[in-house]
User: What shape does this take?
Amino acid sequence: MQEYLTLPRGYTFDAERLDLHHRAMSIMHSSPGRDYRTAALMAEALVPETVVLHRADLTTGTTLQLSASAIMVATAFAGVAYSGGAIPGPDGPFGIDLAEIQMPRGGRVSLLKNHDPNQIVGQASAQVSGGMLYLDGGRFTDVTPAGREAAGLYAEGQPFALSVGVSGSMERLSDRGTDVELNGRVQTLNAVMRRPRLLEVSLVHAGRDPNARLLPARWG
Assistant: This one.
């Protein structure tokens, strides 16, 4: 059964906040063992008469087919994993040299909950651009409880921050801070992590990099 809705005046569409995702997650939680795709199909057959929709590039009056594939978009994400600036540390602010960073094999990085390797949330592609480390093409997993929980909280609007798990060689500059050009800008730092290796990225509620956060996935 397919349902069709026409956007009322003043409404736009945002797949990341689709109410059907909430319904699919509720079906999964009430029926242990049911997979997300089946739950999404069941939720699709229970479309309510009124659904709040958001998306700026669809015009008023557009007829929208709500399908299982559209529901799956609610599990996608992007983000800024590291903004390239100073990170507060026990010995003063430090930076991570993104020009030397070693990415995971294949370019995909695991997304964890609070840097816990036993709490896998999903995965994403990692890339450096403009002196920042970005995530793109991210997907929450429906295999783990942590992934399902994160997808549900994100769909509800939880403002997750991101934190990188890296290893590398810390180059000490000074105890009072030294002006150094790093990641395309001059920064005052006490140390710089050289030859960093990206191990994972984690969802956290408050990270040390104030500009590192989860973002909506790009449409299409």
